């Protein structure tokens, strides 16, 4: 998927300076990491004074919390849209699961700044309070996982999958559908055809464990 498929950017009615600051913060945090980022650097990137930044957000930690939660929500919204779009032309359990798997890969590819923030959290986790991480999880990762659970439950209710623990099955599915593409993307950009092939291979492995006799 390309940028034209993404949800619209700034939310209506949000002050322009807030948008400029959060957009700059997302870029600078993702590039430099939380510990090395200064409010001065974010203010310069946003084209505002440091005083204005503090007036709007109070502290670096608060600004990071807002940026992370809003970015996570935007990415989760995009994922749900990608799934819905992919399922319109899918039939049968394998095609439907490939649509979900492709959405998982696509939303990671289409929002590189956000996933730079996620990588930073994985590296700098001790810097962040528990409440901030919980807010991020609820805004993004848990919503994405919940959407996967919902799609698996639909297939189970139709008798196409045999799942007793949908949440665990969702973790298995996410790992199998995305691992190869995530690993191989480090070697260079992947084509849409390559991504589909990798996702389909992971989906088939998932179905080997979870397909019902009827599916």
UniProtKB/TrEMBL annotation:
Residues 38-57 bind DNA. GO terms for molecular function: DNA-binding transcription factor activity; transcription cis-regulatory region binding. Gene3D superfamilies: Tetracycline Repressor, domain 2 (1.10.357.10). GO terms for biological process: negative regulation of DNA-templated transcription. The keyword DNA-binding applies. It comes from the Bacteria. Keywords: DNA-binding, Transcription, Transcription regulation. Residues 15-75 form the HTH tetR-type domain. This is Transcriptional regulator, TetR family.
């Amino acid at each position: 998927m390309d940028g034209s498929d993404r949800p619209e950017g700034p939310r209506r009615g949000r002050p322009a300076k807030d948008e400029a600051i959060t957009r700059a913060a997302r870029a600078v945090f993702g590039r430099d990491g939380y510990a090395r980022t200064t409010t001065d650097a974010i203010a310069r990137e946003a084209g505002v004074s440091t005083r204005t930044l503090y007036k709007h957000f109070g502290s670096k930690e608060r600004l990071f919390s807002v940026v992370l939660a809003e970015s996570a929500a935007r990415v989760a919204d995009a994922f749900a849209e990608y799934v819905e779009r992919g399922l319109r032309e899918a039939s049968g359990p394998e095609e439907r699961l490939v649509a979900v798997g492709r959405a998982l890969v696509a939303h990671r590819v289409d929002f590189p700044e956000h996933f730079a923030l996620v990588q930073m959290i994985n590296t700098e986790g001790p810097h962040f309070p528990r409440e901030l991480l919980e807010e991020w999880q609820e805004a993004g990762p848990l919503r994405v996982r919940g959407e996967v659970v919902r799609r698996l439950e639909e297939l189970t209710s139709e008798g196409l999958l045999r799942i007793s623990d949908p949440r665990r099955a969702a973790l298995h599915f996410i790992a199998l559908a995305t691992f190869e593409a995530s690993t191989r993307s480090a070697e260079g950009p992947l084509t849409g055809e390559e991504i589909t092939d990798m996702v389909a291979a992971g989906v088939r492995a998932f179905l080997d464990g979870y397909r019902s006799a009827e599916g």
